[in-house]
Amino acid sequence: MASTKVTTTDQGSTAIRRSNGLVEDVYEAIFGQLMALKIAPGARITVDNLVKEFNVSQTPIREALGRLEGEGLVVKQHLVGYHAAPQITRRRFDELYELRLLLEPAAAAKAAAAMDDEKLAALREAAGVMARRTDTDERLHYSTFARQDALFHDRIMAFAGNQLIREMLSFQHTHFHIFRLMFHWRVTEEALDEHQALLDAFSAHDPEAAEKAMRVHIEHSRDRLLPAFAET
């Protein structure tokens, strides 16, 4: 998928360079604002304001918002309109990480046992996009990282061969919600080393190392994001 380019004009509006389909570009632009907390959790999202900001009609805006609603990032209320989804609670956060620790390390071990060159290349591709910086906009980089991180973990679940586990984790939209907790360099930079440890284990076809690397990664991710609750 070609990357979406978003720039800010002198008048403060957001111009979309249409490198994909229009709806896709609008979706990515709004997604980026949600991930980087430019649109705060719980904030009202006004279609007319987005029309002015992106200089597009209401149709792609509404289609993009519908997709975001399906991902749990936007809430639509009858006769009220759209709001950004509220931030996850501490209890929900703990439950999500408990679920991940129960499922993902074992799945990583299975993925390592089934790993081949094609699968490893797909994981390295996602990891490479996360490490790459093609834009000076930190918020855009952060939203791109969130998207690729979700893809990286989803591919591991796919390669593990248990579709039910994959669907269960995907349905929770875990990565999108945890990335909205905090906009901070540690969330991305420290994760890169942990992803590399996973790639090393997969490259070595070492299930035990993959299970350990995934457990460490999830535990560290949890610890990085916990301070977000102390700030609320």
Automatic annotation (TrEMBL):
| Statement: the UniProt record of this protein carries the keyword Phosphoprotein | no
Cited Pfam families: FCD, GntR
Q: Which UniProt keywords apply?
A: DNA-binding, Transcription, Transcription regulation
Question: What InterPro entries does the entry give?
Answer: GntR_C, TF_FadR/GntR_C, Tscrpt_reg_HTH_GntR, WH-like_DNA-bd_sf, WH_DNA-bd_sf
Show the Gene3D superfamilies listed in the entry. GntR ligand-binding domain-like, Winged helix-like DNA-binding domain superfamily/Winged helix DNA-binding domain
Q: Does the keyword Zinc apply?
A: no
Q: What are this entry's molecular-function GO terms?
A: DNA binding; DNA-binding transcription factor activity
Domain HTH gntR-type, by residue range, is 20-87
The name on file for this protein is: GntR family transcriptional regulator
